[in-house]
Every structure is written in structure tokens, then in C-alpha cells.
Amino acid sequence: MENQRGHVIVLPYPAQGHINPLLQFAKRLASKGLEATFATTHYTVKSIQATTVGVEPISDGFDEGGFKQAPSVKAYLESFKTVGSRTLAEIIVKYKDSDSPVCCIVYDSLLIWALDVARQFGIYGAAMLTNSASVCSMYWQINQAILEKFGCLNKIDWVFCNSFEELEDELVKAMLGLWPLVMIGPMVPSAYLDQQIAGDSAYGASLWKQTGDECIRWLDKKPENSVVYVSFGSMTDIAAKQAEQIALGLKASNKSFLWVIKDNENKLPVEFVNSIGETGLVVTWCNQLEVLAHQAVGCFITHCGWNSILEGLSLGVPMVAVPQWSDQPTNAKFVEEVWKIGVRVRKDENGIVIGEELKMCVNEVMDGEKSKEIKRNASKWRELAKKAVSVGGSSDRNIDEFVAKMLKAEG
Ligand code: UDP
User: Fold this and answer.
1) Catalytic residue at 18?
2) What are the strands, taking DSSP E only, across 81-212?
């Protein structure tokens, strides 16, 4: 049967930094005429808000509490593979005789089993990379332990990457012919990139309770480019010793600060908390995009998670990179040495960033010798990111080519 609408299932790994870009991509595909269904676990499905995209629950075997309920990471992944494959297949069957049968599964590259489900039904399979293309190709080339994740990337139909060609141009050229790599990012809601795409003015997924508009009201009172925003993302819990040094650094920098610290119980020194006053605001979670887009924010102290990097870069905010693990050290290197939109902290022999170092980095980025160049580069990359996703831009063209193919595909 000729499929007129083109129906794509988008399957994220159920963590904040994976759900955000994949939900955004599903919305982007829907805005271009495809039917998109976001299939996510029972535990996370409650937090999804989407009007232009269908939402279907699948099971990871831990429907009540998700990952936290599993006895180990291994047990979780095994259960997700078995139960997830079955429940994903059920969604495909559900639409099989409708007027929009599923013709492609776009899955988070961690969930390699989704490709087997696609093949079982004879439909397209596409993997979405939630790290930068540079980091992924490095893993692919050198790290045997995670080869499994990338082992099939030369066999599938598309490898989507939440990045854009101009940002990683050398890598895109180097991977030509090795992977069917397609750069489709940054998957930042269009409103933040001065575009208006229906149904895509927010990520529409928050696994944590947000603090209303308290942050924005507080930022509204601050002068332009005066505030340091500090966040270590959704996965990293910083140790009390490190939190103490950050507190010292922020205080010594003499800047106003907005600090997201998810689990701040007993981590912040009492005298610091008592002395904050109007200079600082400490919250457990915020709408990061709104904060980064606020004109008062002049510096982003970040753990360098890929979404945070793309968000900061797309909104032109200079960064102080404090990488922790995984792809973050590589992202930090790009921030400092390749895109030149910030500086990277040096850690001491115990792996701690001491307050004095943080203070120096903040001052360097906001008013120091390098600050002019950093601000110039941050504006340049913001414009290039906007261009990539606007009509006719590199990522927009890449998505159009995929959509055209889907509109012709057999379901
Ligand atoms: N985020 C947010 N509020 C916060 C902290 C983070 O909305 O207070 C969002 C942020 O915008 C990003 C995601 O959570 O989209 C974190 O993803 P990232 O890849 O940066 O880091 P991870 O959490 O995966 O380490």
C-alpha cells in the first residue's frame, strides 16, 4: 500500500538528555508533514507534553519507577531489550492496517535492538546519536567496549546526529562513506532560534519539577550579561567538597549567580547560604533554555553534557567548562580549543576544581583578556546554529530529504 503520510516512530532512551533532543526531532518531523509517534517508557510518558506528535507508552519492564527500580544497569538494559522489543512491535502492529502504517523507527543509538524490530517488519531503521558526531566517531574507532553500540552504524539506513555540519565540518568529511551520517541539529526548540515551528516552542518533557518562573523573575532584575548560570545537568551529582569550592569561587568572582543543584541537602556551607542574599539564587531544577536565553545571563558554568553545550552555543552564551565523565572532556576541549567559546577549568590532583580556579575562569570569560574574542565567537556560532535549522539551512535540507523519502515509503 502506498503510504501517503509517512509514519515514523521515535524511540528515546528514557533519560532527560536523550528525551529532549529526540522529542524535539519528532516535533520537527511532524512540522514537515510526517506523522510522528514518540514511544517512551510508562514511567517517563507522563512527563511528555506534545500536541503535534502522538505519544505511545512502551515497557522497559519497570513501569512504576523506571531505571531506579532495576537491580543493576545490566538488568535494566536486558529487561528493556526483551520487553521493549515486544511492546515496540505491538505499536507497529497497531498501526499496520491503518491509513498510516509505520515506515521507519528512529531510535536512540543505545537501543540497538530497535533495529531488529524494524527489520522484522521490513521497515527502515535510523539511529539517532545524542552525542556530538566527533565523540561518536572517536568511540567507534578506538573503544572496543562500546563497539556494540556503533557496530551496526554502517548497516542501517540513516545515522542522525544532533549536531550541524558547520559545527563539525572536518568530521563530517572524514566519515563520508563510512556511516550514512546525517546532521539534523541542533535540536533546540525553534522559538529559541528565532524560528516558529508549530508545536515546537518547548522541549515538552521535564522529568524533574520546575521552579515556576521564580528564576526568570529573579533574572529580570539583573543587568544584561551580568549573571553566571551554573548547572551540571540531570545525571551528575557533585560531591559536597566540590560544591563547597564552587560556592567559594562564585562568591570570590563577585558576580550574581543562578545555581541549579539537584540534591543540595547539606552540601552548601551554611555561611555561604546565609550570605547569598540578592546576589544569588539556588534552585533544584529550572527551565534551562529559558534561563540561557535570558539577556541577564553572561556565562554558563557547565558539566558539558552535549545538550547543554548545544543549548549554550545556540543561544550564544560563553562557557566555563567543568567536564565530569563520558563525552564531557571531549566536548570541553572543543569549547575551548575548536569553537573558542569559553575556557576549561584545570582540576587539582584530587580531581577537584578549587574556588580560586573557578573565579579566574569566570572572570576570564566575562571580563578578561580573552572575553571579547569569546563573546565574538559565541555570537558567530549562535548565528550559524540558527542558519542551519532555518529554511534552506544545512540541517533543514537534510531533514527535508529524509521526509521526502518517508512520504514515498511503503508502510
Ligand atoms: N536541564 C533543564 N534544567 C536544569 C538542568 C538541565 O531543563 O535545571 C535540561 C537541559 O536543558 C538539557 C538536559 O536537561 O536539555 C540535560 O542534558 P545534557 O546532555 O546537558 O546533560 P545530562 O543530563 O545528560 O548529563
Assistant:
1) yes
2) 102-108, 124-129, 158-161, 181-183
